[in-house]
Design brief:
111 residues; alpha+beta
């Protein structure tokens, strides 16, 4: 049984996503998280009315499949929005690991 994964929301966000948008968001997040070399992540807009998905590899097959999934979950695509991303989640995670090893050896902080 899969434990539900929640999309990150910043404390400065206003409003609350509807139950339907949360359900869509969870499905999208699971797909995006399964393809970290293609996407940079997924997040709610500041007013919790849309879900943005960062696409680092627009030509990848995973992106094409995602577009069909998003079209099915949000016909008309008014709530699921793709945006260009410079780096994929895998690339960002690799940089994070380097920073931890190089700069946080003695620190009690985190990234």
């Amino acid at each position: 049984m899969n434990k539900p994964v929640r999309i990150y929301t910043d404390p400065v966000y206003t409003g609350q996503a509807s139950g339907e948008l949360n359900e869509i968001g969870n499905k999208i997040y699971h797909y995006v998280a399964a393809h970290p070399d293609t996407f940079s992540g997924a997040y709610f807009s500041s007013d919790s009315s849309k879900i943005y998905v960062g696409v680092a590899e627009p030509g990848d097959e995973a992106t094409s499949v995602f577009e069909r999934l998003a079209d099915r979950l949000d016909p008309g695509r008014k709530r699921v929005v793709t945006t260009d991303a410079h780096w994929s989640w895998s690339e960002l995670d690799a940089v994070k690991k380097i920073l931890v090893v190089e700069y946080l050896k003695e620190s009690k902080g985190g990234i």
